[in-house]
Specification:
Elements: E1 5-9, E2 12-14, H1 15-22, H2 26-35, E3 45-47, H3 48-57, E4 60-64, H4 70-81, E5 88-89, E6 93-98, H5 104-114, E7 130-135, E8 138-143, H6 148-156, E9 164-170, H7 177-188, E10 193-198, H8 207-215, E11 230-232, H9 241-255, E12 258-259, E13 266-275, E14 279-288, E15 291-292, E16 296-299, E17 302-310, E18 316-317, E19 319-320, E20 325-331, E21 340-343, H10 347-366, H11 376-379, E22 387-395, H12 398-411, E23 416-425, H13 430-439, E24 441-446, H14 452-460, E25 465-468, H15 471-483, E26 489-505, E27 511-523, E28 527-532, E29 535-547, E30 550-551, E31 554-556, E32 560-565, E33 576-585
Parallel strand pairs: 1-4, 6-8, 6-9, 9-10, 10-11, 22-23, 22-24, 24-25
Antiparallel strand pairs: 2-3, 5-12, 7-8, 13-14, 13-21, 14-20, 15-19, 16-17, 16-21, 17-18, 17-20, 26-27, 26-33, 27-31, 27-32, 28-29, 28-33, 29-30, 29-32
This protein binds guanosine-5'-diphosphate.
Length: 587
């Protein structure tokens, strides 16, 4: 049998466009359309399904190609223009974590003061959120907001900036609750750990006890045959600082961290603020490529041209290399920590993408967000894949934790894995919620409640906190979710967003909106919500969706269409609409 030629077609096209892609005359297409009962003229648009009938008629096999979104075009543009091709070793980026008062801040100060980057010694130290030091002619970057909450907050936003974690433990105090929290955060991020046993100058300092305690949590010192370096330091008396830095370089070498300074820059925002005199400014950690003065950048939902750059000594720079933190001026709005920065040639495209992102973010806050549930976490898991459930476990007493962990372990079947990312006694804290958000975990709260800050962040980050006071109920829930036995549940899925650009009166007092699809797609068989100034004024069904005169099933973003909503005749220009449908959640 003759194999059919394959032809790629977009979701919508004009009759003429279809004729061109089939290399036949428009009149032949029109005839074929008439044969299948569709009346169309040369400039009319038809959808993919209609085009497919014609193409199949002509002996083709069709394939749907959805045109690139602006985001996709932007990434292709970046990749095409980024250049480079010769990655070189880059400086490691380090975050310091540990229990409160164990000396994180003091250690960061000591490192900064003992190892100033050559040639920068003159400048006055500026807090820009990160700094670089030089050891043995090589640089190390430190993020100077210590702590694991900030670390996981960035990670939850998709920004993995840290290469190495320094876990600070006071030698006289030993391992404390936040030491273990920090350990869990670093592990969840799969970042190598270097332990700094601090305050060894103190009477009562007991480094061996720290080693013993951390060993019990799986962090075995290298001199005990494990693979975690432990360094004894005194941040106060500046003892062991250079040893610590040498070890950091060693760990960096093992990780073979590389970047390509010949490329256009990519980076992440470490912090940002609005300066009353200079306008928005932000600290960028350059992750790859070289950031240059006058570069045009897209940062989250804003853009700008780099007007000035400063390092952590307030020295003016013309360029910033991989792993270098720099404060930049010239952005048009204040970005958020964790936003990605890209140097983009096509300014118009960058602006369009920024505007779309801003709209999406606005819509997301307007649409009622529904927390991620136990069941949703399984949704992506197919039959052939191992189902995984990550759990952060908080309980009233240590005894319950052991019992619950043991029981969860028993639940594990062949293709099911429950991982307890972190377990501790105490209320649900901000740290727990951050960790759960970054690890796609649920929180099991056994006989404990979240504090107000934790509750607020859980809501904002859509983290599911489940409360139990009977182990049996807890296990039952998890088991039922694992086995897919719970009652079906429906969940709302938003298909797209649009803006009303015009309003048309139709015969018999009907009304239609001229709609511009801003994100996703408009779908004929979905429900719509009409929003005016952020408030929902109608919720109902789509009664008609048209491109030009044709009824269509879908309209992609970037296109205009006519929209009718059943029993609704009150559109105004500037209204927003949301297309959505209900989907059954797989258990
Ligand atoms: P952080 O909460 O972890 O940032 O801890 P800080 O850096 O603020 O230190 C807490 C306290 O411990 C301060 O009073 C420091 O002066 C003190 N400290 C920090 N490092 C050392 C050290 O190496 N030796 C001694 N004796 N005290 C230290």
């Amino acid at each position: 049998m003759r194999t059919r030629r394959i032809i790629e077609l977009p979701p919508v096209m004009t009759v003429k466009e279809l004729a061109d892609s089939l290399s036949i005359s428009p009149s032949e297409v029109i005839s074929a359309l008439i044969r299948s009962g569709v009346m169309a003229t040369i400039n009319q648009t038809i959808d993919y399904d209609t085009a497919e009938i014609v193409a199949t008629d002509m002996g083709y096999q069709t394939r749907l190609v959805v045109p690139q979104t602006d985001e996709e075009r932007l990434i292709s543009e970046f990749e095409a223009n980024a250049g480079g091709g010769n990655p070189q070793p880059r400086a490691p980026v380090v975050t310091v974590m540990g229990h409160v008062d164990h000396g994180k801040t003091r250690l960061l100060d000591a490192i900064r003061q003992t190892n100033v980057v050559e040639g920068e010694a003159g400048g006055i130290t500026q807090h820009i959120g990160a700094y670089q030091v030089e050891v043995q002619g090589r640089k190390i970057t430190f993020l100077d907001t210590p702590g694991h909450e900030a670390f996981s907050a960035m990670r939850a936003r998709g920004a993995q900036v840290t290469d190495i974690v320094v876990l600070v433990v006071a030698a006289d105090d030993g391992v404390m609750p936040q030491t273990l929290e920090a350990l869990a955060h670093a592990r969840a991020a799969d970042v190598p750990i270097v332990v700094a046993i601090n305050k060894i100058d103190r009477e009562g300092a007991n480094p061996d006890r720290v080693k013993q305690q951390l060993s019990e949590h799986g962090l075995i010192p290298d001199d005990w045959g494990g693979d975690t370096p432990f360094i004894e330091v005194s941040a106060l008396q500046r003892i062991g600082i250079n040893d610590l830095l040498s070890i950091i370089l060693l760990v960096a070498d093992i990780r073979e961290l590389r970047a390509d300074s010949a490329r256009k820059a990519e980076g992440v925002i470490i912090e940002a603020r609005l300066d009353p005199n200079q306008g928005p400014n932000a600290t960028v950690l350059v992750q790859n490529g070289t950031l240059k003065l006058r570069d045009f950048v897209l940062v989250g939902a804003t853009v700008g041209r780099i007007r000035a750059m400063f390092d952590d000594k307030a020295q003016k720079l013309r360029k910033a290399e991989p792993s270098q933190p720099v404060r930049i001026h010239g952005l048009e709005a204040v970005p958020e920590a964790g936003d990605k920065l890209l140097v983009i040639e096509d300014e118009k495209l960058a602006r369009e993408v920024a505007a779309q992102r801003a709209r999406t973010a606005q819509m997301a806050t307007m649409a009622a967000s529904r927390p991620t549930t136990l069941d949703e976490l399984f949704k992506g898991a197919g039959a052939d894949r191992t189902k995984e459930l990550n759990v952060v476990l908080k309980a009233d007493v240590q005894g319950s934790i052991g019992a619950i962990e043991h029981a969860l372990g028993q639940l594990a079947e062949e293709n099911v894995k429950v991982t307890v990312v972190y377990a501790a006694a105490g209320p649900v804290s901000e740290s727990d919620v951050r960790l759960a958000a970054a690890s796609n975990a649920i929180i099991i709260a056994f006989n404990v409640r979240p504090d107000p800050a934790a509750r607020r962040i859980a809501e904002a980050e859509s983290v599911d906190i489940r409360y139990y006071n009977i182990i049996y109920n807890l296990l039952d829930d998890v088991r039922a979710a694992l086995a897919g036995m719970l009652e079906p549940e429906y969940q709302e899925v938003v298909d797209g967003y649009g803006e009303v650009r015009a309003v048309f009166r139709l015969p018999n007092r009907e009304q239609a909106a001229g709609l511009y699809v801003t994100d996703g797609k408009a779908v004929r068989n979905s429900r719509v919500r009409v929003l005016r100034n952020g408030a929902v004024i109608h919720d109902g069904e789509v009664s008609s969706l048209r491109r030009f005169k044709d009824d269509v099933r879908e309209v992609q973003s970037g296109y205009e269409c006519g929209l009718g909503v059943a029993h609704f005749h009150d559109f105004e220009e500037g209204d927003n609409v949301e297309f959505y449908h209900q989907e059954q959640v797989r258990r």
